[in-house]
Amino acid sequence: MSDLQEFFPNYHSESDEEINETNVRKRKKQRKRIWIKSKEFETAELAINYVDNFKTWKKITTYNSSAGCKVTYRCTAGEYRKNECPAGIYLLFHSESSVVSLYEAKNEHSNHVDGNRGLSMVAREMVRQLFADGIRKPNAIIAAFQNSGLKEPEKLKLKNFLAKVRQEKFGPPTISVKDVFNWCHARMDVPVKADTPFVLGVNVEVDNGDKHDLKIVISTKRLLRLMIKTEGVQTDATYKLIWQGYPVLIVGSSDMNRTFHPFAVAVFNNETESDFAFIFNFVKDSCYKINETEWNPKILLADSSSARTNGFKAVFGFPFRRLMCYFHVVKNIDGKLRGIQDKDEIRNDIKCLHLCPDDETFNIVSELFLKK
Questions:
Q1: CATH number of the domain at 35-105, out of 3.40.50.2000, 2.20.25.80, 3.40.630.30, 3.20.20.210?
Q2: CA 17 to CA 5: how far, in whole Å?
Q3: Residues in CB range of 273: below 8 A, 6 or more apart
Q4: Residue 70 C-beta-side C-alpha neighbours within 13 Å
Q5: Closest to 86 in 3D by CA, of 32, 161, 154
Q6: pLDDT tens, 8-39?
Q7: What is this structure's pTM?
């Protein structure tokens, strides 16, 4: 005991604390698990195959209990005995029947997320099941976790795992230029079956790896035969169908029952006049090959893209009637009417202009509209 400790019995020097910390062995915190039954199997073979398919469970012990034989497994996601994953399961082979039950540490396994490995095994299995059921957006998957009473995974780790699931199911998200070129040229011949898709035209160019040009037009014989029944064409592009973000153009037309009939699908990386001229030209030529009839539509329905209008004009000539998609018109009108009073009256006037049967009536209504 030091001199200071004789006068101050409650005083502890730093050296004494270091000695006490080295002498006193810290007791390891004991795991507290609540085992929950999650699945039943009719045979032992089905149960063992189910566990083995995950490739992440390692068998630890096998022992007999009053209920039957228990086989315990640990998760191999983390480093053994250092950064070990706390998840665990065991199979119970009932002594009275051939039924096998699967129990898991639901409270730890569902909440555990290894920082290096990503999602837990329960989360992975649930994401795979939701993906197979058609629920493939991160926000929708997180909502499904919340509705099930489970802790939702981190969004970044969920996106990374979804990318892995997509690659396992659909293949790699990227494809080389050579593979695209070979795939298209292997499908250039017109097939015998009417519903077998084939490539109408393709243009794949790469300049020093920086600049590239991609145009692919695909259709079927049955769809091309529908083209000669109409003089109107409807086109629109979407950016939500391909992982690379390239626009996908749909070319088709609607019948009197407002049912849309596609004629061709095109994938390209730009929306220029030459791109649309390329697409319309191959659609026109392929229609002549299949139907042996010239197809010259006189109506184009699309958004206000001038490149689409000029591309159509370059292939099918002029004059033709250019129609605007009314949905885009109304959407832009609502944006312009923000902060303006009497919106309903202005909308009604615009609707009257839109529904005018001829040019003469349009001029009369427009004059009345301008006088207001």
A1: 2.20.25.80
A2: 13
A3: 306, 307, 310, 311, 314
A4: 15
A5: 32
A6: 344 444 444 444 444 555 565 555 566 677 78
A7: 0.52
